[in-house]
Design the sequence.
């Protein structure tokens, strides 16, 4: 037993202090003490010693965490942004995200819809993001790249397979590629901020067309197909966004429902507050039909599966019900073991919709309903109004971006991964 204890002590020393203990054992081996002084303890021979020390050194070096960096404007945050950051995180251990400044967006793309504060809230609320750098430059300059490598300890800079060009036509990531510290991910198809702005502008045109028709004027009709989502949902994508785990046996489950259309900073804030009230946050996403019925025929802007992924990407959300009912029933509360039902004070509705049954009548009667005060008054409609109010600038921005989109799809090649 004494020999076994000493043997364990030797191997513990070799593991935790490889250089010091390796030198001691090497000295012992050179003096011929491995079989004499240590007797039958089983001290390794010199070749074996070098081999084993090397193994432990590799293990120690392998513990270094890989830090990756990805930047973007993240204007009108959507599931495409979230999926890009998910892929970036998969290439390392820690993901640092740079949020491009308002001034840089104006200079390179046109006016942003969301403020820097709103965009920071959205990016920080994503489950894959570890750190955020505000006011990042649009182009990776040599000075900024050195700052990433030296100050932020970044190992690789990540971007999608779609080209990111500066106004002069040069590659914004040329320096990172030249330095050999660049990695590429697959772009998420079917959505972009340009596409979302386009949907809102089409709604504006459609509204104007209806007003003109009511006044007896004739205008060219707008195809409903123009607003059809190009997103092709797959079960694998939902699994990739999911936490893939349910609540514990004694978990306090909090439920909140809504449209969560054009996922924004107000949504992040209310979801965070809801999550703080329990151990597991379950979010109900209303169907497109229900949203349209209660908010008007031009809603939702984002379709059910698009909205579901945006909500699933939020770090405060544990699970979603895709297509939740309008009313929270007793059976639903029992089925999901809901402890508390919450709703924010900022909510949108169609003023022309008929006043129906209170969807929270049951949880209220059970004493498990709580209204959460919303400190952020941003809504889906207020975001859309920003675009409508400045629609000429956004039409020009979209026309410019649309040309780049067409070129990308014309030259598009298959990219593995994602």
Sequence:
């Amino acid at each position: 037993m004494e020999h076994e204890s000493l043997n364990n002590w030797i191997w513990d020393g070799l593991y935790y202090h490889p250089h010091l203990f390796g030198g001691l054992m090497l000295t012992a081996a050179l003096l011929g003490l491995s079989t004499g002084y240590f007797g039958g303890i089983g001290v390794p021979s010199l070749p074996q010693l070098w081999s084993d020390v090397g193994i432990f050194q590799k293990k120690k070096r392998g513990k270094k965490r890989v830090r990756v960096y990805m930047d973007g404007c993240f204007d009108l945050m959507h599931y495409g942004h979230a999926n890009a950051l998910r892929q970036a995180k998969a290439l390392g251990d820690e993901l640092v995200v740079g949020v491009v400044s308002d001034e840089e967006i104006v200079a390179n793309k046109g006016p942003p819809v969301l403020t820097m504060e709103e965009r920071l809230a959205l990016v920080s609320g994503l489950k894959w993001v570890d750190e955020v750098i505000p006011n990042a430059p649009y182009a990776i300059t040599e000075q900024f790249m050195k700052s990433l490598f030296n100050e932020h300890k970044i190992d690789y800079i990540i971007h999608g397979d779609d080209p990111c060009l500066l106004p002069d036509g040069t590659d914004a990531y040329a320096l990172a590629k030249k330095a050999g510290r660049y990695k590429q991910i697959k772009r998420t198809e079917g959505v972009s901020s340009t596409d979302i702005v386009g949907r809102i502008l089409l709604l504006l045109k459609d509204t104007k067309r209806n007003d003109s028709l009511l006044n007896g004027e004739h205008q060219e009709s707008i195809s409903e197909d123009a607003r059809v989502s190009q997103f092709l949902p797959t079960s694998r994508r939902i699994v990739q966004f999911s936490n893939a785990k349910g609540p514990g046996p004694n978990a306090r489950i909090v439920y909140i429902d809504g449209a969560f259309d054009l996922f924004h900073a107000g949504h992040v804030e209310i979801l965070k507050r809801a999550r703080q009230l329990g151990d597991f946050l379950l979010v109900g996403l209303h169907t497109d039909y229900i949203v349209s019925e209660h908010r008007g025929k031009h809603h939702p802007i984002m379709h059910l599966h698009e909205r579901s992924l945006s909500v699933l990407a939020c770090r405060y959300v544990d699970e979603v019900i895709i297509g939740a009912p309008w009313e929270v029933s007793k059976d639903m509360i029992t089925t999901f073991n809901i402890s508390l039902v919450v709703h924010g004070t900022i909510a949108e509705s169609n003023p022309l919709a008929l006043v129906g049954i209170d969807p929270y009548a049951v949880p209220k009667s059970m004493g498990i309903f709580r209204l959460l005060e919303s400190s952020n008054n941003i809504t889906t409609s207020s975001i859309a109004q920003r675009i409508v109010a400045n629609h000429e600038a956004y039409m020009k921005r979209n026309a410019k971006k649309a040309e780049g989109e067409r070129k990308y799809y014309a030259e598009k090649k298959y990219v593995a991964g994602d």
